[in-house]
Specification:
Elements lengths: L9 H10 L1 E4 L3 E7 L6 E5 L7 H17 L8 E7 L8 H15 L12
Parallel strand pairs: 3-4
Antiparallel strand pairs: 1-2, 2-4
Helix pairs in contact: 2-3
Length: 119
């Protein structure tokens, strides 16, 4: 099984926070920064203010799945960090996916969008 392309090291997160560009909506905040790796990586941050570990991990899985299923519609060679907001706690997959793709459109990293998508 192929490794999921994620940002794991604190230094990598800090680099994207410091040098990246960010947009936000009601559910998520997205930071992006081009990388030299040729692949798109994602890092997901969910604060303890959002809820207990079960709630936080559930949100991480929803965001990761939204990224995985829409990966072919996202530009290659960038690092993406997603920060979940408190309003995301009660959201379902479709709301998270919609918020994720909305932010991809704002950053202009979404390619091959389906008709009717925002951005």
């Amino acid at each position: 099984m192929k490794r999921f392309p994620s940002i794991r090291k604190n230094g990598e997160f800090r680099k994207v926070y410091a040098r990246g560009k960010s947009y936000a909506n009601r559910l998520l905040v997205m930071y992006i920064l081009p990388n030299e790796l040729g692949e798109t990586r994602i890092g997901i941050s969910v604060s303890k203010k959002i809820g207990n570990s079960v709630t936080r991990h559930h949100l991480v899985r929803l965001v990761r799945e939204a990224f995985r299923l829409n990966r072919d519609r996202i530009q290659e060679g960038i690092d993406i960090i997603i920060v979940a907001r408190a309003a995301a706690r009660d959201s379902d997959y479709h709301q998270i996916e919609s918020a994720f793709m909305h932010l991809c459109g704002l950053h202009r990293i979404a390619v091959n969008q389906k008709p009717g998508d925002q951005g």
